[in-house]
Amino acid sequence: MTKVLYNNNIQDEVLKNKKIGIIGYGSQGHAHALNLKESGFDVVVGLRKGKSWDKAVEDGVQVETVAEATKQADLVMVLLPDELQPKIYEESIKPNLEAGNILAFAHGFNIHFSQIVPPANVDVFLVAPKGPGHLVRRTFEEGAGVPALYGIYQDYSGQATELALAYAKGVGAGRAGILETTFQEETETDLFGEQAVLCGGITSLIKAGFETLTEAGYQPEVAYFECLHETKLIVDLLYEGGLETMRDSISDTAKWGDFVSGPRVVNADTKARMKDVLTDIQDGTFAKGWILENQANRPQFNAINARENNHQIETVGRELRELMPFVKKAANKKKDGVPN
Ligand code: NDP
Ligand code: MG
Ligand code: MG
């Protein structure tokens, strides 16, 4: 099994005399900034005036513009939305980076797909918590943490690994486990996971099931419960104990149906198309499409988004969730940001 590092394997002195700039104060940003500060590090947050700025001030952290925070910091962690990073990097971060500084990310996309090309005289690493920002913060406050991946892209100082591990420990990941990766592996697996399984795969599966039932004349409300609502119960069991625990908790009829019908729905053909999706990620086709889509002001993204929000499973779901206050409460915690 791959090596997993914990707090007692990590020396964090190497980061103690450095100022850490956290650029962005959203899902990940607020968690990194507050956890690092409470771990005893010197933190400055870089932002524009707005919602996050007010929140950071309220939380008692030092807040500056992105340019000023970069200037003051030795280590700059970029926690802006991925699609905005290249522009903000060019305008406000790059001109204020000094030789020997450290540039860090929580996701490899912009470095791996060359949207940000760092100077040769800085360290570049990633520390990617494998969990939503609010959980990174909450578990830290509870004395625990969220596991993280770390990877080195550029080791100018010769200390990039030590620095990345010290950073990961500072955000609390050393309490849960830290695994080594590369920018390439983190980027490609993250994109694949969210496209083929976690987001794209699951929403398409749910919709196909819902449509099959409603087209056969069953009530949309019943189809909603069967195909969407109950997924949470199943996913919680998968999370706790894998396929076996989930299958041990359902009836044997459900388990038999799982065995004989699951592979008829998700079959070799589906897997071949997953492979196509992976190829598009690996050869840059997906990245190029998403970068161009953003440059064009997202015409397709917005059109699909509007159409999807009007699907019958959504209109029926909105009505049903109104009648389930316990479900609405969970929804208010929103912007977990996972998968990122
Ligand atoms: P969010 O969208 O939650 O937060 C973005 C932050 O950037 C906000 O504080 C926003 O402030 C600020 N911002 C936006 N535009 C500007 C600007 N022009 N100038 C200054 N600040 C700006 O991002 P996430 O935390 O979701 O993602 C950050 C990074 O972390 C990404 O690389 C993502 O892939 C990665 N990641 C995210 C995870 C997650 O849980 N969400 C998990 C693992 C990695 P404002 O209020 O002013 O808009
Ligand atoms: Mg992810
Ligand atoms: Mg992602």
From TrEMBL:
Annotated residues for binding of NADP(+): 25-28, 48, 52, 133
An example Gene Ontology biological process: isoleucine biosynthetic process
**Which residues are recorded as binding Mg(2+) 1?**
190, 194
Concerning InterPro entries, the annotation shows: 6-PGluconate_DH-like_C_sf, KARI, KARI_C, KARI_N, KARI_prok, NAD(P)-bd_dom_sf
Show the Gene3D superfamilies listed in the entry. Answer: 6.10.240.10, NAD(P)-binding Rossmann-like Domain (3.40.50.720)
Report residues binding Mg(2+) 2.
Answer: 190, 226, 230
Annotated metabolic or biological route of this protein: Amino-acid biosynthesis; L-valine biosynthesis; L-valine from pyruvate: step 2/4; Amino-acid biosynthesis; L-isoleucine biosynthesis; L-isoleucine from 2-oxobutanoate: step 2/4
Cofactors required: Mg(2+)
Q: What class of enzyme is it?
A: oxidoreductase
Record-listed substrate binding positions: 251
The segment(s) forming the KARI N-terminal Rossmann domain are 2-181
Q: What's a single GO CC term here? A: cytosol
Q: Which residues form the active site?
A: 107
This entry's Enzyme Commission designation comes to: 1.1.1.86
UniProt KW keywords: Amino-acid biosynthesis, Branched-chain amino acid biosynthesis, Isomerase, Magnesium, Metal-binding, NADP, Oxidoreductase
Tell me the ranges covered by the KARI C-terminal knotted domain, including all copies.
Answer: 182-327
Checking NCBIfam families in the record gives: ilvC, PRK05479.1, PRK13403.1
Job of this protein: Involved in the biosynthesis of branched-chain amino acids (BCAA). Catalyzes an alkyl-migration followed by a ketol-acid reduction of (S)-2-acetolactate (S2AL) to yield (R)-2,3-dihydroxy-isovalerate. In the isomerase reaction, S2AL is rearranged via a Mg-dependent methyl migration to produce 3-hydroxy-3-methyl-2-ketobutyrate (HMKB). In the reductase reaction, this 2-ketoacid undergoes a metal-dependent reduction by NADPH to yield (R)-2,3-dihydroxy-isovalerate.
Q: What is this protein called?
A: Ketol-acid reductoisomerase (NADP(+))
Q: Tell me the organism.
A: Salipaludibacillus neizhouensis
Q: What is the lineage of its organism?
A: Bacteria, Bacillati, Bacillota, Bacilli, Bacillales
